[in-house]
Structure to design on (457 residues):
């Protein structure tokens, strides 16, 4: 059976193929090989730039151009060639080294420096930088743009629905009103914090040999400050240099990144569930798409499948990230290989998140607020004004204010007439009575609109 969208085991490469294509160039096996090839070539060029120090023959411009073209023209055919070498070596990075040496054999001058390919490196020197670059690119090219789109949607709806009064529900029971815009704003503010946090997390890399001490480097060239060379190399890649490691970069920064992403995802799960609930309450209508079917047997159905899909995929992504957060910072002594297979699933982990983000955005585009239902629910719950009335009574030092409103409203259906009658009998200034009587479940929204305007300004 040939691999296709229908035969792929993972829905990432099958059902959700279109949603994850932005990550494929980064995290596929081809992508991983290309990033590692990039690191090998950049390290070799660093070595070449030190030709006087290392007493190497200076290469000509066309030689450097030849080296650059190996990466620039890297193809699937090249990747397959490397994988065929790996079948013999049973070692992926060594296969990449042999691929480069084979390329260099085509040039007499480059053949003279072919032993400086992968010079003094352990495989993890190449891999950790490759992963750092992959993670960096996935954040900048995929995650942050999608997060920004989500944030902009939430901001847009916060402003659009700032005047749409909403009966709040605390413990699932009618509570002090808000507005739909303010409730969406709560998520906007939370998610935006994670956006800025993710941008600030440092992405680290190391380049210090088999146990982090430059042993091989010093053995070959004891008079060179390899610690400084390592720093120059790492920082030239716009990564943060980790000066103190074992054989591996300890992956703490990956745990920090996944901690941030998983919290973003958790907030989004919370949002998906709230919107799902508002759709169920008929606070939002879903715009019907003529050719879509909601149920195989119930023709009337328009299910909130986008928010359900988003919630499910966010849960999968978080489960994998939580494992990586707990696993990756741990390594036996100077190195064990249990992190390797986990790291290979970073793309899988982020793919579930990306699928979820697209689903949530797609669901948001179909929403249409139902102000009539919002007003109906508010007008059926005049008892929510008991909070305002008893608080004003407290201001004027009326004893047992809370208890009086409790007796009037708790477990009872009351209306505007009942409340106005109670207010009329209060021993408070007439101006306060008039002010209280002007309050309705619709306009008792506190500073909700002001908060929206200040936060979104």
């Amino acid at each position: 059976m040939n691999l296709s969208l229908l035969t792929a085991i993972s829905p990432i490469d099958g059902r959700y193929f279109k949603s994850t294509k932005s990550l494929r160039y980064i995290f596929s096996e081809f992508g991983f090989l290309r990033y590692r090839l990039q690191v090998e070539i950049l390290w070799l060029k660093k070595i070449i730039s030190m030709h006087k120090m290392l007493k190497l023959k200076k290469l000509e411009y066309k030689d450097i151009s030849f080296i650059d073209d190996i990466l620039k023209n890297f193809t699937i055919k090249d990747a397959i060639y490397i994988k065929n070498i790996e079948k013999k070596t049973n070692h992926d990075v060594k296969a990449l080294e042999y691929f480069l040496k084979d390329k260099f054999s085509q040039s007499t001058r480059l053949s003279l420096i072919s032993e400086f390919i992968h010079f003094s490196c352990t495989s993890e020197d190449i891999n950790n930088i490759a992963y750092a670059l992959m993670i960096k690119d996935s954040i900048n090219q995929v995650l942050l743009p999608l997060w920004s789109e989500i944030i902009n949607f939430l901001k847009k709806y916060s402003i659009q629905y700032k005047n749409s009064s909403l009966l709040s529900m605390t413990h699932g029971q009618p509570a002090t009103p808000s507005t739909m815009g303010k409730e969406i704003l709560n998520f906007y503010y939370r998610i935006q914090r994670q956006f800025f946090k993710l941008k600030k997390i440092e992405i680290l890399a190391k380049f210090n040999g088999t146990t982090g001490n430059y042993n091989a480097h010093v053995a070959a060239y004891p008079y060179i400050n390899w610690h400084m060379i390592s720093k120059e190399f790492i920082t030239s890649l716009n990564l943060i240099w980790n000066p103190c490691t074992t054989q591996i970069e300890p992956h703490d920064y990956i745990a920090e990144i996944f901690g941030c992403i998983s919290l973003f995802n958790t907030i989004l799960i919370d949002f998906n569930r709230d919107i799902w609930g508002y759709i169920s309450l008929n606070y939002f209508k879903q715009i019907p798409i003529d050719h879509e079917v909601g149920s195989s047997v119930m023709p009337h159905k328009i299910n909130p499948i986008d928010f359900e899909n988003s919630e499910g995929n966010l849960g999968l992504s978080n489960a994998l990230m939580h494992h990586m957060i707990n696993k990756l910072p741990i390594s036996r002594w100077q190195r064990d290989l249990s992190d390797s297979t986990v790291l290979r699933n970073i793309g899988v982990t982020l793919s579930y998140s990306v699928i979820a983000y697209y689903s949530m955005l797609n669901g948001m585009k179909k929403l249409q607020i139902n102000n009539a239902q919002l007003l109906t629910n508010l007008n059926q719950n005049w008892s929510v004004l008991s909070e305002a009335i008893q608080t004003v009574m407290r201001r004027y030092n009326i004893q047992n204010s809370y208890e009086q409103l409790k007796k009037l409203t708790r477990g009872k259906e009351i209306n505007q007439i009942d409340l106005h009658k109670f207010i009329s009998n209060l021993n408070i200034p007439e101006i306060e009575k008039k002010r209280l009587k002007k309050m309705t479940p619709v306009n008792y929204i506190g500073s909700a609109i002001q908060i929206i305007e200040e936060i979104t300004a």
